[in-house]
Structures
1.
Amino acid sequence: MKILVCISHVPDTTSKINFTEGDTKFDTAGVQYVINPNDEFGLTRAMWFKEKQGASVDVVNVGGPETEPTLRKALAIGADSAIRVNTPATDGYAVAKQLAKVVNDGGYDLVIAGRESIDYNGTMVPGMLAAMIDANFVTNCISLEVDGTSAKAVREIDGGKETVSTSLPLVIGGQKGLVEESDLRIPNMRGIMMARKKPLTVVEPTDANAETKTVSFEKPAPKGAVKLVDADNIDELVNLLHNEAKVI
Amino acid sequence: MSILVYTESENGKFKKAALEVVSYAKAVADQMGTTVTAVAVNADNAEALGDYGATKVLLVNDESLKAFNAKKYAAIIESAAKNEDSKVVVVSASADSKYVAPLVAVGLNAGYVSNVIAAPSNVSPFTVKHSAFTNKAFANTEITTDVKIVGLSNNSFGLVASEGSASVEDFSPSIPESGVTVESVDKATDKVSIADAEIVVSGGRGLKGPENWGMIEELADVLGAATACSKPVSDLGWRPHSEHVGQTGKPVASNLYIAIGISGAIQHLAGINSSKVKVVINTDPEAPFFKAADYGVVGDAFEVVPKLIEKLKAFKAANA
């Protein structure tokens, strides 16, 4: 089984989010980048398929050279090789189109992407990719088993979960549950040394026009101070929620 | 040219999010000088969408579509959009809508923006405001394609009643085979889901153990709320994963979020930030959640929560 794991290069959760150039660009100054958490759950599940079922695991990112350390980290975790499509990630559609070409050229059976990236939260790349390559698609995926060309997946739905049967070729929108937090791997020194020698191929982009364009960013208005209610005066809390906040 | 809106139902009954997307679509239609057509599958009482601004409902009645299937539902929405020559398609932020929307986007060559929180600031160029960076910021984004898809964040626009009525038409587009088959659904039917909830009651490690969740459930019950939990609680196995809210868990966009014994790690706050009103109950006045909350009680959950339940019961009885 040939697996491709899509890796988004995203600001670490604790990063301060700021904008520059008249609030039109994300301010990368001082920002630490990480593998998108939803992708990392997928990558770790892919490593399980590699170790238990002999799958090969490649990772891919659509982005400039600055994303290569994130791909190297994925190699250090255990992926076999990495591909970087050398173009900025302009919108979900354009990224999906670049990925579709990589999947078609590489003949992958299973593609695992995160259900969403924690920067733009579009929740669209895996689905668009699946539609473009006409593969089966399961998102919000919290469990995945593959046997030959058949697959069984569990999808989180509103208020519960749903078990589905499907087959390869398959695109997964993954999240926590594919593996647990405690299964995530921190690259060790050997992994990091080996990652330096693993292939990281840079491929030139195909034609793909973005369909959306972000014209400006805003930060939420600063929040007022919390209104404290005495623990002995819970009537007051009920009163505030009813009369002031009007939520009950 | 009407605005098309996909209205989800469950066991025949429209979800609240369905009424909200119709309300939203009506606002967009008014801006663009057109009308609203809804598309629904196996829904009862489809003409009720007229109360929120739809003038036409394309209703698919098909037992084989009882279980949601993204590919099949995408085909229905695409056919409806083509039928109506719609330039704007509106969907909700439910798990199913977020599953189907990217497929529709490719099928219609339409640009798609999700997590939209307000009516378009401009219809030419078509510009919408949406959350980004896991609720730490907003972005204003133009959709540059001929057909546009808007994914509306739950509870962001609200329900807006409208005069008028909707005609219901049977709709039976051709539906493709799908390579994904639902084997089983595991869903608590008597509980409010986090996605649909207007109020969410959430517990953290401060509750000391899973045996203490009775009061959380009771509080949720009084409020008609969904229950949720912090990441450590789900990692410890005290509560199921499906209740974990935060950056890597479920997003919450409720009207009221009550955090009990949750310190407020940045990942947690990111996931719940788009809730409108936040209440924190915690023994530690230095807990970061107090900086993010609107109302706070410094106190022991084991004393405060039972009191709150009692007061709310009295309030409900008085306002029934």
2.
Amino acid sequence: MKIDRRCFLSLAGGLVAGHLLSPVPWKVTDDLSIWTQNWPWTPVPETGPVTWKNTTCTMCPGGCGIKVRIIKDRVIKIEGREDHPVNRGSLCPLGYASIQYLYGPSRVKSPMKRIGERGSGNYEPITWEEAITEVSGKLGDLRKSGKSHTVACISGSDKGTIPHLFKRFLEAYGSPNFIRTPSAKDAHETAAYLAQGKKAQNVGFDLENAGYIVSFGCGLLDGCGSPGYQFSSYSRFDKDHTLVQVEPRLSNTAAKAKKWMPAKPGTDGALALGMAHVIIKKGLYNRNFIENHSFGFEDWTDDDGNIHMGFKGLVKGYTPSMVSEITGLAAGQIESLATDFARAQHPVAVCGYNECTVSSDIDKTLAVHALNALVGNINQPGGMIVFSDPEYNLPEVEKDQIASDGTAKPRADRAGTAEYPQTRYLLNMLPETIMGANGNDLPIEALLVTDANPVYTMEDNETAQEAFARIPFIVNFSSFMDETAQFADIILPDHHFLEGFRDVPAPDGVGKPVTSLSAPVVKPLYNTRNTGDVIISIAKSLGGTIDASFPWNNYEAFLKQAYNDQYTDLSRSGYVVSADKPAPWESAFANERGKYEFYPTMRHTAGNDDKSKLPDFRQVDIPGDKTNDALVLIPYKSPRIASGAIANPPFMTKTIDADMLKHERLFIQVNPETAGKLNLKQGDAAVVKTPSGEATVLVDLFEGIMPGIIAMPAGLGHTAYSKFIAGKGVNVNALLKPVFDPTFGLNKAWGIRASLQKA
Amino acid sequence: MSTQTENTSNAPSNEPSPKKGATGWVIFAFFVIGFGFSLLGGWVGFPKMLYTEVPHPIDFNHALHMNLVYDGCNSCHYFREDGSFSGSPTLNECRDCHGFVMGINENEEKFVEEYVLQDKEVPWNIFSKQPDCVYFSHAPHVNGAEMDCAACHGDIGDSESLRSYQENRLTGYSRDIWGWNMSRLGEPEHAPRMKMMDCVNCHVEETDSQGSCFQCHK
């Protein structure tokens, strides 16, 4: 028997054939594929018992109730609470994505002290005791040297017990400088004060019961205000409901509205007056309200015998044809809009809240409030609702001489001073004041920042950053390493909202007085502390009357005392609705006459040339040179981009369309007609220049924007947080600039002149 | 070259030519050897290499426990309030009875000393463990389709000792998933096989539908 090569070939053939008929190839293939799924670096979901816990989202001022799905100790999913009166099951993408902030790398994990340059993000961890000693030491020194009034606090809100603790602290310490970041609340509360007589009121809109909504530029479905409230209200709309959107750009809200009216930007005030003209001319206003509960509708004579023109006289000149010229809308459209609005069941006119720009034009806001008054829809179902904050059951602040002297000093932001007597907060003024002061006499020596990110959100951003850089001592209470935290000397990190307690009263723009409770659903992951506890500790270590003003061991004890009897309900159901019905007309108006004043007699007019108190249409002259900067840049809001103090989490950035953000490059929306003139094509790189700055962007041709207007989304271009958040797009605030109302000091700018050139 | 050619041409033409190689039978024999070796290796040797016997951390007597509880399997393996299934009892649940050693059983002694007193969960071998993101819900099977536990788990409730657990060295999962018989033919030996097609086949048989991907892959 001879064995040769063919035998071995045959053997190999046999081996292969046998192998193929054995389970080896199939089983090994199957097992290898499973093996690759189990590599140790593959993230795997937690398994274990599931629990659901209710709390309230505080990522924006919307106050939505949420339910949190937890497996073992890990938060897995957040959903809207169906039984919560604000959002009724709805929730915005930021609420869903807020888990990413709990576990993400941008958390500040312990108290930090700055060791590098401002903005560099170089910090070293310190203990809580060291941090509190350092802060109270610095504040104590300033107080001793008679500079207590140079301490300021910038807060994202003035509602709720945490801002209240800061206000209380400054009062006991001796500073008048509690400053709320700018928002549409500024204009609403001022307008409500002027027309209705009560200061610091919440103005909301009962959208869930409204039948006909005219929105003057509100991004109701673009994620502003309380997105959960607006989404859930809109989701209940049927054919009998109408939403009319007045806006120069085809936004999400405009696209979903029954009617989109692209008025020229900045002319909404004229449209409101034009609508009032038609309503009055056709006699469609609410006679009972006008005759019995209003003042200044007709011309009137004061005690000195001077005759004043009333609201009716003012709007006489705003004929549809004249308003058509101002707004660019057809006269017939204006007339039918006004008629439909006045004849509808529960009509409501909305402005201010939810606009992407923080424009606070008092005239426009008064004009829109007046529209609601004309149809008698103030404090009525489906109307504009005005209500007060919950009252806290707390002892008086104890003040020594330094505190009394310090709080009596004029505010550093000039709000409430002789210059701007009717305005409560003017953060936008602060950079100018700081930059104008000389080095030894700074109006702000120490700054506390809570729930705010002014270094990112302030318009004319470069000047704001320069001003913040001049402040010698900044303490930040942010949970995240945001742009303002990077400017801070000491960071005292708050818990993530899923880890700590806090009350959430009066959600932005919501037409009912709801107060919710945000309660911990997981244990704190890091060495963070509730800001309320930290303020109490700082007060205690300062001693004297400041310590005496804070007789609580911790924030929870303070919270319980503040809400007193209501706390049980608040902690059991997670929310309380403080009054079922808004104040009736008989008792709603707190001014001298007890009436809604179409002619706001209290209005301060020192800065106005015409001295008129009526809400006339006054065109805002936006910054820029009309000849060189032929275009107008407006920022816009997208529901998929968080544009406030909190940056867009990566989950949300993933959902942004490729025509808004491409890798790190931001698109600017340009009408094809405008682009044609500028010789720009889709995707071209271009440089946008404004009086505030310039940026390189990509061109997105968009038919939904007026020729001559260009638009950029707000909320991108962050430089801090983490590498997953920073460096995406451009911060539109760096290109904008405020225009100050001469009487109120509020920012009236709705855009800025700009030029666009091929890069 | 020329020499060779000459030699060849000069050879006598009537002599039988020498054998040039192996015969067909020999070649075939080699084929059979190779074939047999592969078959034997694949069906007998390969499973031995692929699977390894993993001892249980402690033995467990289901029968004994069944006599002491009131609600059968549900006493320890129950549905949570949200409808999810508890699976193997946690240490806390066992601790209710086994806070200290009650009998004279070496397994119980080990359980109390090594796990209860040290507050450590027992790392049970889980015969039915599926890859991450693959979900099996007991609720629609037990509550919805009213299947008995034994329909899938066999007579485990009457067993006095845990049966052998073999782990796949490549995947880390139990041999029960593929089934003990490598050919996957015939009735399964211990419990129903748990590859995806096993689920699908049963669903098609029982409900006329194989269901949707996301019912299990989440």
3.
Amino acid sequence: MHLFLLIGLLAFSILAILSRDLLKSAISLAVASIFLALVFFRMNAVYAGVFELSVVAGLITVLFITAITLTRGDGDVAESRGHRIVFPLFFLALAVVDLLVMKKLLGQIPAIQGSESGTFSQVLWNQRTFDLVGQVGAISAGVLAVLALFRRDDRHGNAASDGGDTGGRHE
Amino acid sequence: MNNLWILNMGFVALLVGIGLYCLLTMKNTVKLLIGIEIIAKGVTLALVASGYARENLMVAQSLAITVIVVDVAVIATALALIININRHTKSLDVRKLTKLKG
Amino acid sequence: MLFLFIIVPLVLAGLLPLLGKVSKRLLPDLLASAAMLFLLVLAVFSARPLIADGGIIQQAFWFGAPLNIRLLLDGFSLFMLFTISLVSFAVTIYSINYMEHYGAKANYYALLLAMIAGMNGLVLSGDLFTLYVFLEVAAIASYALVAFGRGHDELEASFKYLMLSAVASAFVLLSIAVIFGVTGGVSFGAVAQGLKTLNIKYVVGFCSGLFLAGFGLKAALVPFHSWLPDAHPSAPAPISAMLSGVLIKVSGVYAMTRIFLGVFGLTPALTTVLTVMGIVSIFVGALAALGQNDIKRMLAYSSISQIGYVVLAFGIGTPLGILAGLFHLFNHALFKSLLFLNAGAVEQSTGTRSLDKMGGLAKVMPLTAVTSAIGSLAIAGVPPLNGFWSKLLIIIALVQAKMHVLAALAVLGSVITLWYYLVLQHQAFFGKLNEAWQGVKEAPFWMSAATVLLALLCIVTGLAFPFVIQSWLQPAADVLGKGVGVALNFIGF
């Protein structure tokens, strides 16, 4: 069962890459996310699964589709025709190497016992608080970046009224 | 238990591999971003699988969630860039982005 | 107290877009510069006594209530904090004048502060994963800052930078996931302990490779350098100074050194790889810089070359090598940001970055010409400026480690550096004044203040280098010299 879910995840990821239509790519990516969430649920990682479903399959897909519709009608980008031949070859080579390496590793990794205690929220709040600060930082950096990139152009602006103009720029 | 980890890691390697393939060969800026997303999926899977194998699942999930949040910020910034580039070049073709020598 | 290094810039970054609605320039200028001055003072005076007997772990407080955040401070992180604060202070006061014509100053400062918060968090984290998160915070802010002008070039450079940087982050994170899988922990102590007891060479080798590629991309070491000559020149000048001066060092060199020397332990194979990458970077960067006509591109290639020196020195792994690497890292932060700020002043006054079109600018911009000459001589390693001493230490360390060929090559690289900086000085500032620039004036007050500050520091660091080494570098070098021992001390972390 686990294996089938992983194969589904991989298949839809490949579809997302190879599909010619960007919207189909974005939707394949969302389906791949759903498979990944199911994998997480099978590994009892409920919180990660819910997050994957809501944020990656939901929010990121919405972002992608918005961007795709905003940039639509500008002509499709011609991808090289070679993908149909090159990609299967590449994938086959990758899979063979992967299989060999993993077979060699089988049973090589020693097991150590985890020392887990507490519920999810306790762990997130008590052990990984610093990461939460980092999350806040990442979100604000992202928001600020989007704000900066979509700002109204006030280059030749009307900002002289604020009195802080000490600039000595000469045009 | 460990063999499941290795199975998962095998698929992580495949996901990262096809993501890198996409980054190296595709010409559409949005497609490149989808490649990044696929690599990110692989990495999230690696984190959760590691936590599962080490019975450290709660920590692994916190890490995975942080990765997802950070990823959203990166994708939002990248899409904002792509929309801005699209205003200049009227295209999503990465081959139009060759003004700088590299 | 240490938490202030992260929370002050972060909170201010959140507030500035709102304050920017009230006052478009004055308030953002004032607050950003004040915040950076505050952090600089904090780094110099308050944080210093904390590391009197080795590293400490400090719990963070939020309005008196303890948080479950433990910040790691030792000589190495304090040294980086000091470097970050110093360069960012110079950059913020420079921006007061320079960013006038870009508009959206509040937004600009907010992004800059977010980037600084990210770097400070990275330096203070004692945990691989937290290090990754703050790496991304700084990176996201830097993408937007590179694209801040929103012209075609800026956007193109930023997009390329984002793509490569995202791959770098993915490599780093994948490596962290594998380490988490084999050791069951992500804090420095737990990982160092786990790797010590487990003895799994192949996994460590694989993770080292991923880290090398990831942080190599961030630091723009040679096979991974292609984004830097686009991204650094396209950004506004203060951001170029920030990126070349500190960001590539914090998110590339610091993170790499911290993990390789402090958590994994330096192996002979790693020494070979790092020294080879270092020496190749020195030459590729220097030779590419020689052929540039764009002043900022020349400086960007020169950054690749100088980062090569730093990585080469760390790669030697001897106490003197580490000390020399740290010293060169600090010096490069000073003179490279100085040179980028000067290039920005020239670009703003003349409207061009092409060296061919300049000439004789010393007559109309004397201050810029003098500070730029100091920076150029310092980076080329002319005594008694700071760059001379750090390069000398690197070469001595190489000779001591019996790497004579590398030492000779390092000297040769330094000669090439001197050559292209003389070309730069000659073409931009000396010779006959180009007719077109008769009306050009000296850079405005705050821009000159920033460059003069950095130039003076170059001279002072050069003259008083034994003091600098004693007070700032030795504690940092001691931490790195102890190798994994430091991480193992912090196991309860």
